[in-house]
Amino acid sequence: MIAPPVHRGMVELERSAFRKVINTLAVKVPVKQVGLAKKSFAEVMMDQPRLRNIEPDPSSKETKLVLLNLDFQKAEDLPKEKLELLKQYEWDLVQHDVELNYDFWTAEQIFHAVMPEDSTDIPASFTQVGHIAHMNLREHYYPWKRLIGQVILDKNKKITTVVNKTNNIDTTFRFFKMEILAGKDDMIAQVKESGCKFKFDFSKVYWNSRLHTEHDRLVQLFKPKEYVCDVFAGVGPFALPAAKKGSIVYANDLNPSSYEYMKENIAANKITSGIFPYNMDGRAFIRQAVKDLQATSANEWKTFDHFVMNLPATAIEFLDVFRGLYYDQKDLFNANPRAKLPMIHCHCFTKSTDALQDISERVGQIMGSKPDPSKSSVHWVRNVAPKKDMYCISFPLSSDIAFATIPVSNNSSEKRKLQDTEPSPRKVPKSPRTE
């Protein structure tokens, strides 16, 4: 592999410093004999990524140059049978210079050339969100952050803004604080996913393109006419595709920016019915949504088929709201032989080697009893850090929990009590009636 010139310690990008001239042997052949030459010298031809092994001959338009592997620096290095072929066809062996510049090298090669030789985690990867490259640089690479941003910008033509996360996720409104490393100060991203278009301010809302597969997986579980309650909906990556396929979705996010962009995305995707956006605290929303949906049915049991709780850092803590959630609707449930309770899909993190046991125990501590293992499943979503994985546990809400009369007091911390009473933007649509 050809490497670029080394410039350890460069922190301001100098593109001209990465010019390099490679000298190689080449077989000079008539244009009409290029195919024959390629076949005859196939095993000794240049085989370098992104480099052509057939070049124009600068001395004549009648001939081409077949470049040989860099292992061969002089005629004597060639196998005897190749030298005999040169004589047989009267082809000349010449020296040829290949000039490489900054445009030739990959971002990773540039970073290897400027960073300490013992660097093992070269930061060449990023997450793309529309026109934005989102990086998560380790602190020891901060001296090179502007250079890194510019190189990423140069090497990816669809990227016009490069940003770096500067802290952990905001626990209230679920977004990262970021700094722009290179490119335009334009944080309004537009993304296509699951057949829907999404627009949002990436600096004010949470979006993770790596969750595309998980969004699709759950949406495929929802059937047309089923009722879905999306508790932490963000700008709508679960809610909009589900509504488009015919599910009836109540979607909520506490972040006012997420709520506003979700409404904008609903309109942009021409979804005119079957989706109801809210802007509330998660627990308050669950209670309100259950009441609103039940209000659409006169005297018959009606509730959600699915609750989606995609807030992996803290979603499990919100499960206490389900204890006694349907206590005042028990008679309606018992009066309907076809009545059923919802499935809960709750995302979370775990470092345990036994994910099912760890997550089930944590769910049980919050709700008062563990989910039925014969009806529960734990789906691995992705690895987020060394020895830290994201999972989704899916389980049916049990009647013991749904109709319980006493909350689990030892699991309801003062912090969570305050969270329910804390002032926050609350925008609740009128009780919707289904068509």
Automatic annotation (TrEMBL):
<feature type="domain" description="SAM-dependent methyltransferase TRM5/TYW2-type">
    <location>
        <begin position="126"/>
        <end position="399"/>
    </location>
</feature>
<dbReference type="GO" id="GO:0052906">
    <property type="term" value="F:tRNA (guanine(37)-N1)-methyltransferase activity"/>
</dbReference>
<keyword id="KW-0489">Methyltransferase</keyword>
<feature type="binding site">
    <location>
        <position position="310"/>
    </location>
    <ligand>
        <name>S-adenosyl-L-methionine</name>
    </ligand>
</feature>
<keyword id="KW-0539">Nucleus</keyword>
<comment type="similarity">
    <text>Belongs to the TRM5 / TYW2 family.</text>
</comment>
<dbReference type="InterPro" id="IPR056743">
    <property type="entry name" value="TRM5-TYW2-like_MTfase"/>
</dbReference>
<feature type="binding site">
    <location>
        <begin position="253"/>
        <end position="254"/>
    </location>
    <ligand>
        <name>S-adenosyl-L-methionine</name>
    </ligand>
</feature>
<dbReference type="InterPro" id="IPR029063">
    <property type="entry name" value="SAM-dependent_MTases_sf"/>
</dbReference>
<dbReference type="InterPro" id="IPR025792">
    <property type="entry name" value="tRNA_Gua_MeTrfase_euk"/>
</dbReference>
<dbReference type="GO" id="GO:0005759">
    <property type="term" value="C:mitochondrial matrix"/>
</dbReference>
<comment type="subunit">
    <text>Monomer.</text>
</comment>
<dbReference type="GO" id="GO:0070901">
    <property type="term" value="P:mitochondrial tRNA methylation"/>
</dbReference>
<feature type="region of interest" description="Disordered">
    <location>
        <begin position="411"/>
        <end position="435"/>
    </location>
</feature>
<dbReference type="GO" id="GO:0002939">
    <property type="term" value="P:tRNA N1-guanine methylation"/>
</dbReference>
<protein>
    <recommendedName>
        <fullName>tRNA (guanine(37)-N1)-methyltransferase</fullName>
        <ecNumber>2.1.1.228</ecNumber>
    </recommendedName>
</protein>
<dbReference type="Pfam" id="PF02475">
    <property type="entry name" value="TRM5-TYW2_MTfase"/>
</dbReference>
<dbReference type="Pfam" id="PF25133">
    <property type="entry name" value="TYW2_N_2"/>
</dbReference>
<keyword id="KW-0808">Transferase</keyword>
<feature type="binding site">
    <location>
        <begin position="281"/>
        <end position="282"/>
    </location>
    <ligand>
        <name>S-adenosyl-L-methionine</name>
    </ligand>
</feature>
<comment type="similarity">
    <text>Belongs to the class I-like SAM-binding methyltransferase superfamily. TRM5/TYW2 family.</text>
</comment>
<keyword id="KW-0496">Mitochondrion</keyword>
<feature type="compositionally biased region" description="Basic and acidic residues">
    <location>
        <begin position="413"/>
        <end position="425"/>
    </location>
</feature>
<keyword id="KW-0949">S-adenosyl-L-methionine</keyword>
<feature type="binding site">
    <location>
        <position position="215"/>
    </location>
    <ligand>
        <name>S-adenosyl-L-methionine</name>
    </ligand>
</feature>
<keyword id="KW-0963">Cytoplasm</keyword>
<comment type="function">
    <text>Specifically methylates the N1 position of guanosine-37 in various cytoplasmic and mitochondrial tRNAs. Methylation is not dependent on the nature of the nucleoside 5' of the target nucleoside. This is the first step in the biosynthesis of wybutosine (yW), a modified base adjacent to the anticodon of tRNAs and required for accurate decoding.</text>
</comment>
<keyword id="KW-0819">tRNA processing</keyword>
<dbReference type="GO" id="GO:0005634">
    <property type="term" value="C:nucleus"/>
</dbReference>
<dbReference type="InterPro" id="IPR056744">
    <property type="entry name" value="TRM5/TYW2-like_N"/>
</dbReference>
<dbReference type="InterPro" id="IPR030382">
    <property type="entry name" value="MeTrfase_TRM5/TYW2"/>
</dbReference>
